[in-house]
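Lab channel / #folding
Pinned by the channel admin:
"Please post every new chain as: sequence first, then the structure tokens as a reply. Keep commentary short and put observations after the output so the thread stays searchable."

First post following the new format, from NK:
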Amino acid sequence: MSGRRFTVQGTNNAFECTHCGADIQPLQNGSVRNHCPHCLHSLHVDIFPGDRACDCHGVMEPVAVENSGKKGWMIVHRCQKCGHTGRNRAALDDPQQPDDWDLIVELSQQPRL
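Reply from TO:
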């Protein structure tokens, strides 16, 4: 499996957003919460999704959104510390803390990267 580590089990935890300070609860749909639903910011903690193997730990700023036919809305993040760009699936269907739709719409108005 070419060295890929994927350890999602046990990584869907509550956390405090380092950008806005909101208390964030785990996703309820079986996936992993990897960004704040209120401000859409994230942390640069993964090399591969869910592995928590990255030592950077910079704040990942939401810079754009993309619509993928299979995955739905994807939030594009850029690390403010190292410049890494990554994509995370939007969590619009979470019954407890869905992603802020207005912020996603606002991001969709931004020029493409």
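NK: Confidence is low (pLDDT under 50) at residues 1-7.
TO: also worth noting, The chain has one helix and six strands.
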